[in-house]
Write a structure and sequence with these properties.
- The protein is mainly α and 247 residues long.
- 60% of the residues lie in helices and 0% in strands.
- Among the domains are: 1-125, no CATH class; 213-246.
- Residues 155-211 are annotated as: Disordered.
Length: 247
């Protein structure tokens, strides 16, 4: 009784809730659905007659539709053999695939699953063939590789004669001009750019010696790389300008 009530529809559970005998429940269900075969069989026979392999977009779609109809026919007592499944598939090929249909017949498949497996493999190979053809049409040149393109560009960049390391222009300006391009002292102009204009020179040099930022006073970065919020920076600058007061 528990097994029957577990598998029947929810609407039927409430209808037969008062039935306590499992045999009585089984007979009631049998009397109610005994005419189901007479209703399903004509539609299943019509679907079987109208089923064609050429109407399906994929092999998997045809296979699922076929077994749905076959299960209904078997439930109604009809016998569906392997030869019937094979002939149904062979005879419903598209007219443009006559040679393909003959080739599959020459394989002499004994079971339907062997035929459907070969059709699935052929469909997958055809999809790969079409993808390769669409990615590169017939007669077109192959695309250059990324590494080869980057190496070619680097080679042309080195040979153009406009880089800083070119030997021909290395001493063009003379030793006096080349020496002027080097950094002479890190504590002169470059540190003046990083220094906060609101602070004195001595305070900035003292903070630079400590390694603190001139903007927020924290360690680990310079003034230009500072990302501290503006209100924290304002509090820090106020503390420098008003050292006598407690901030």
């Amino acid at each position: 009784l528990i097994f029957l009530r577990h598998h029947i529809d929810n609407g039927l559970k409430y209808e037969y809730l008062t039935v306590k005998n499992p045999l009585e429940l089984w007979q009631n269900l049998n009397d109610r659905f005994e005419h189901l075969k007479a209703v399903v069989l004509p539609k299943a026979m019509n679907d079987w007659a109208q089923l064609r392999f050429q109407d399906s977009k994929t092999v998997s779609e045809y296979n699922s539709t076929l077994f749905k109809i076959v299960s209904q026919l078997k439930m109604c007592g009809e016998v569906i053999t392997e030869d019937m499944l094979l002939e149904k598939t062979y005879r419903t090929f598209h007219a443009s695939n006559v040679l393909l249909q003959q080739q599959y017949r020459l394989h002499r498949f004994k079971k339907y699953r062997e035929l459907i497996g070969s059709l699935l493999i052929g469909e997958q190979n055809n999809e790969l063939l079409l993808q390769n053809h669409d990615s590169r049409p017939t007669g077109s040149a192959p695309l250059p590789e990324v590494n080869a393109t980057s190496l070619d560009f680097r080679g042309r960049e080195r040979g153009c004669g406009r880089g800083r390391g070119n030997g021909r222009n290395q001493n063009f300006l003379g030793p006096r001009h080349n020496n002027s391009m080097k950094w002479k002292n890190m504590d002169t102009k470059q540190r003046q750019k990083w220094r906060n204009p609101g602070q004195s020179s001595n305070a900035g040099q003292a903070q630079n010696r400590k390694g603190n930022c001139n903007r927020c006073g924290m360690e680990g970065h310079w003034y230009r790389a500072c990302r501290t919020a503006k209100h924290w920076v304002g509090l820090y600058q106020a503390s420098l300008n008003e050292k006598g007061k407690q901030i």
